[in-house]
Design goal:
Helices cover 28% and strands 21% of the residues. It has 413 residues and is α/β, with parallel strands linked by helices. The protein has two domains: 157 residues, no CATH class; 219 residues, Rossmann fold (3-Layer(aba) Sandwich), CATH 3.40.50. The strands form five sheets. It has a six-stranded parallel beta sheet, sandwiched between helices. A four-stranded antiparallel beta sheet has the order 13-12-15-16, with no helix packed on it. The protein has a two-stranded antiparallel ribbon with strand order 1-7. A hairpin with a 5-residue loop joins strand 15 and strand 16. The longest helix has 17 residues. The radius of gyration is 21 Å and the shape is globular.
Length: 413
């Protein structure tokens, strides 16, 4: 499956290929296909659908006592993290790879951290790309497929614009086990940053438990952050975004927290008396971020569009995932607090050929650059919005083969 998947030239083709082979896959491979489909949907701008296609949830924390509103208050995560980072040498923030909502906070943090004196940004998805800093934007060849997702591309552009020195650090040798990868990541960060610049201040964008400062979520394996702490001799500020996300409709810890501390932006909790920031697992990470809900009835247009069971297990043992559709609204967090403006698009751009993807590239950037935004149409007569910073863009509709259906230049005000 992975060999054939690598032959697909773009996320639309990858997604359609996975849908075609899904019924023939074993149970184990159908789980992998669900995850790969979620990656592709995220890279196609179908963010809510990506979460539904692979509703990954972290294990509940045993014995966790949730904060109450009488002793804690919710505050904007941007402000709180920037304040706590002021005296740190290393800041680490994780993400859930198929849920781009967890990248929005990282993107918005970059100007704050650069102003505090952080000069290096290490990105897990980045590979070797000597021309990146001069060029200013990532290409498909710049790293893993995650970089094709627009928010990840914007993280790279913003980092270059702000003057960060970008660092690739993932240990991706074939056959490497979890322990080898964690050690490799930590050593790469030390060798490529602190060995040459002992006074460096580093921001690390990584996935899941890589940012943990103690053994726990990776079994008995020491996470990258724990190893790097020993190598550098400095305690990182570790920020977790994976534990409290909107992935289903259960009455879990996440939904209890957002009822107690409603917010439409990522928030952290601060003790009303001491000012201490809350961490659900303080031995692993310093701050727990609570993401705003994204699976509300409003997101689906109306209640009839809400899937009763997003993922189901068939009697033959393979999983069936919901097919992509265009009935859902795009999530409000795509505005990035007003930095991006809505630009309406519809299936007329596809010239009656579906499915098709419509992307917006900054003027001067090629088709193989990470788009500024993208959306895939599967249903005739569909309308939606791209979310773009003010400026000039090249709007292009294309097929799974990459063939251009329409193209024009637009201005976003």
């Amino acid at each position: 499956m992975f060999h054939e998947l690598g032959k697909q030239p773009n996320p639309l083709d990858r997604y359609l290929y996975l849908q075609e082979i899904g019924p023939r896959l074993s149970r184990a491979n159908s789980i992998l296909a669900g995850q790969m489909s979620a990656f592709a949907l995220s890279e196609l701008g179908l963010y809510t659908q990506a979460v539904l296609a692979f509703p990954l949830k972290m294990s509940p924390i045993e014995g966790l006592v949730l904060p109450d509103a009488s002793n804690w208050k919710g505050v904007n995560a941007l402000d709180a993290i920037a304040n706590r980072a002021s005296d740190r040498k290393i800041v680490m923030i994780n993400e859930v790879h198929h849920n781009a909502q967890t990248r929005a906070l990282t993107l918005q943090l970059l100007p704050r951290l650069r102003a505090l004196g952080f000069t290096y940004l290490a990105i897990e998805a980045l590979g070797k790309d000597p021309g990146l800093a001069k060029r200013g934007y990532p290409l498909r060849s710049s790293g893993t497929e995650y970089l094709q997702e627009p928010l990840y591309g914007e993280i790279v552009r913003e980092a270059v614009r702000l003057g960060f020195e970008l660092v690739h650090y993932d240990y991706d040798k074939a056959g490497a086990d979890v322990e080898t990868r964690e050690v490799g990541q930590a050593k790469n960060l030390y060798d490529r940053v602190f060995a040459k610049d002992p006074q460096a201040r580093l921001v690390v964008a990584g996935g899941y438990a890589h940012v943990d400062k103690a053994i726990g979520r990776l079994g008995q394996v020491q996470p990258m952050a724990m190893i790097l702490t020993k190598l550098v001799g400095s305690d990182p500020l570790s920020i977790d975004q994976a534990q409290f996300l909107d992935v289903d409709w259960s009455d879990d810890d996440y939904h209890q927290l957002v009822k107690r501390f409603p917010s439409d932006v990522p928030e952290v909790l601060v003790d009303r008396k001491t000012g201490h920031l809350w961490s659900a697992k303080p031995e692993l990470y310093d701050i727990s971020v609570i993401s705003p809900p994204m699976l509300s009835i409003k997101a689906f247009g109306n209640v009839s569009n809400v899937p009763p069971q997003p993922v189901r297990l068939e009697p033959d043992g393979h999983y069936v995932y919901p097919k992509a559709s265009n009935v859902m609204f795009r999530p409000a967090w795509l505005e990035l607090g007003g930095l991006r403006h809505a630009y309406p698009i519809d299936t007329r751009l596809c010239r009656d050929q579906l499915p098709c993807a419509v992307d917006a590239h900054y003027i001067g950037e090629p088709n193989n650059a990470s788009p500024a935004d993208i959306y895939a149409f599967f249903s005739a007569g569909s309308v939606t919005r791209l979310y773009l910073r003010p400026g000039r863009y090249r709007l292009r509709a294309w097929t799974r083969e990459g063939r251009t259906l329409s193209q024009s230049n637009i201005n976003v005000h």
